[in-house]
Amino acid sequence: MQLFYQPHLPEIQHLDLDESKHCIKVLRMKSGDEINLIDGKGTFYKAKITNENHKQCEFEIISTEKEADFNFHRHIAIAPTKNIDRIEWLVEKATEFGIDEISFFQSFHSERKVIKIDRLEKKVISAMKQSIKAKKPIINEIDSLQNIISNAKEANKFIAYVDFQNTTYLKNELKNNRDSIILIGPEGDFTEEEVELSEKKGFKKVSLGKSRLRTETAALAAVHLMNLIAE
Amino acid sequence: MQLFYQPHLPEIQHLDLDESKHCIKVLRMKSGDEINLIDGKGTFYKAKITNENHKQCEFEIISTEKEADFNFHRHIAIAPTKNIDRIEWLVEKATEFGIDEISFFQSFHSERKVIKIDRLEKKVISAMKQSIKAKKPIINEIDSLQNIISNAKEANKFIAYVDFQNTTYLKNELKNNRDSIILIGPEGDFTEEEVELSEKKGFKKVSLGKSRLRTETAALAAVHLMNLIAE
């Protein structure tokens, strides 16, 4: 199913420049044709094209449908990788599985201190359309690990730490209906001080399993687990 | 930890051309230095360089260590995607999580009929080194779906099929210590005839969850689940 994105629905009832071009020039849709839209806030819209303008395609809403709410708020916070492709990939896959909020932080072993949110937003919107989701995950600007830890409001807080002796597995700690945040460290992992700081603020040290995972793979494992818990 | 790959260990005690160059020219290792190797068959080797030749670096084995066996054989069979990057990505991530065998098949809605195994083998070897694994997953040449179905020897056989009414979730069907194969269809999914054929051969229709996943994401979810079951 082809979905169009208009974040200002229902107030604005036309597509933006790129979406208008795609709809009218590429897909050759005409006035009177039906289209499906998402607002990024959790609602699907069915609409009819009223003006096949390839710069500003106008439509009128026929019907709406709310996406079912997820059982809890799913939040991951990651130290971004040096190679930004790996983060873009993660953002796409996390959106497919289902995620509510993605944060980035700088920590002692961080390899990257800058993130271009615009590019990630595009990946997210494309993944939402692909996987037929109406609610756009929140993508936060990069912040210090300390701020992320101090500001976390979730009921269940976890820090994934590579320690093959630790048998406290995230899969056994996540609870349905409990808002959760999971911190995923950089390739050099968290320092002991960072782990201690997070523990003081109520984070629990968890293992993602017996394999040594790259940052983005660990983050995806965490996202997959949060989704499994609620099904 | 830097790992070198020599599939003919312990018989051959030198690195191949690429690995020799990397070891001697890039890492500037010398005779007498210790290196770590894997044979792709499940054994780690510690060795000492005896001849720092950058075309054929020779070494002698000091000690060996067997990698712990996984509880069961983990096999996924996938309809390869049009964009081969997505399959390369999957092969890398599946190796990180842990997988024993990856097969590819042609089915009615397949978008790609050819797979270059050589490139995938390189991805797998690189991922093994990265995630410190000694056993190389088997990567099979592409085959017909019919042959894959008929030849499957695993005790537990699953076909992942997009059907949001189906509440038979893979996560509840996998059993520890039971060799498993999971079929993952192309973007257009399996046809009803293909599902029926697989069911006749003992495959069980399962759901991976409530999200609409791309082929490679579905495959990775299945791989992650197989690993979770045993932990």
Provide structural commentary.
2 copies of one chain form a homodimer. With 231 residues, chain A is α/β, with parallel strands linked by helices. Chain A folds into 2 domains: 3-66, Hypothetical PUA domain-like, domain 1 (Ribosomal Protein L25, Chain P), CATH 2.40.240.20; 74-229, 3-Layer(aba) Sandwich (Alpha/beta knot). Helix content of chain A is 32%, strand content 23%. In chain A, strand 9 (156-160), helix 5 and strand 10 (180-184) form a beta-alpha-beta unit. In chain A, helix 2 (84-97) runs parallel beside helix 3 (117-130) and helix 2 (84-97) runs parallel beside helix 7 (215-229). The first copy, chain A, is elongated, with a radius of gyration of 20 Å. The mean pLDDT of chain A is 95. At the A-B interface, helix 2 and helix 7 of A face helix 2 and helix 7 of B.
What order do the helices and strands of chain A follow? EHEEEEHEHEEHEHEHEH
Most extensive interface: A-B, 25 and 25 residues
Mean pLDDT of chain A: 95
Computed over alpha carbons, the radius of gyration of chain A is 20 Å
CATH-wise, what's the superfamily of the largest domain in chain A?
SPOUT methyltransferase, trefoil knot domain
CATH class wording of the largest domain in chain A: Alpha Beta
Largest sheet of chain A: 7 strands, parallel
Overall number of structural domains of chain A: 2
Multimerization state: homodimer
Residue runs with pLDDT of under 50 for 5 or more positions of chain A: none
